[in-house]
């Protein structure tokens, strides 16, 4: 990164933006480069307003414009986009045993990634590892400007964006993590739920580019569900509590038996079932690897898991009516390996005459979760909160 004594970015300009200017920047982040008529349509403003509102942002170096020749009209067009190198953002994803940090540009393009194993979970240990990660990022992206803001996501709740209300995996309750980080690093910080962060990333850079309404379901260490409606992540005080994990999911047997999603679709559930089938304990990832290699018992277990996952997808879709469902998390690969079984599970709880449920599976990558944390920070900065 560039000289850490340099200004962190035009914070005063972000604070001074009008609500409509913020909408314009957020639209450019979500959709990428846009022509002025597209901005008019998305934001709902006049041609004159587009020029009046964006000119100061271009002059300040937050937006950039290019002249393009449009083939069908022959007239030059000047689309606008966020200037990538105007600032840099740090996103950090905290999981049970790993800290993943990314340095991104202002379009959330990843410039560097660092992974550091965690040997302890105290706030002091986490902040120390985070400081080391930022040093590593600085060395990996020496030409980037110093970070203007930092987002941290974890499996827990942080309703005010600063204090971790609860993080069960870490044993945390009411930990003022943002205060600790800012005191150590001097970078404006926001804390958020990891599923909310990943859902925002998907809304801006994934299926959200084409679909205004979608669900995201994660399976692995836990079961999570995110929802986007009209391009906005739906959230409230309960959205970060993993409520979908409490929903009973039938197993397809006759007579049917149901178990809460968190008891049948997690890593622990796979590991427990493997032992119940008479095997020595194996980590869930190793069971999936055996299934990939064709081991009969592992294939049977994962196929059953996939059908149950399909039922949960179908049940969730019945309430949220998404255009597409994204499956992510540590065990998302099962949905790819056993795609037919997932569809069988969906069919078991969905009318045949209903629109087929479009399922997209994301390969698990903690760097994407960290990028989601960067998205939380960048959104807060655009809104004048960081």
From TrEMBL:
Question: What InterPro entries would the database entry show?
Answer: ATPase_NBD (IPR043129), ROK (IPR000600), WH-like_DNA-bd_sf (IPR036388), WH_DNA-bd_sf (IPR036390)
Q: What is this protein called?
A: Transcriptional repressor
The lineage's top-level taxon is Bacteria
Which Gene3D superfamilies does the record cross-reference, listed alphabetically?
A: 3.30.420.40, Winged helix-like DNA-binding domain superfamily/Winged helix DNA-binding domain (1.10.10.10)
Upper lineage is: Bacteria, Bacillati, Actinomycetota, Actinomycetes, Actinomycetales
What organism, scientifically named, is this protein from?
Answer: Actinomyces succiniciruminis
Q: Name one Pfam family in it.
A: ROK
Stated family: Belongs to the ROK (NagC/XylR) family.
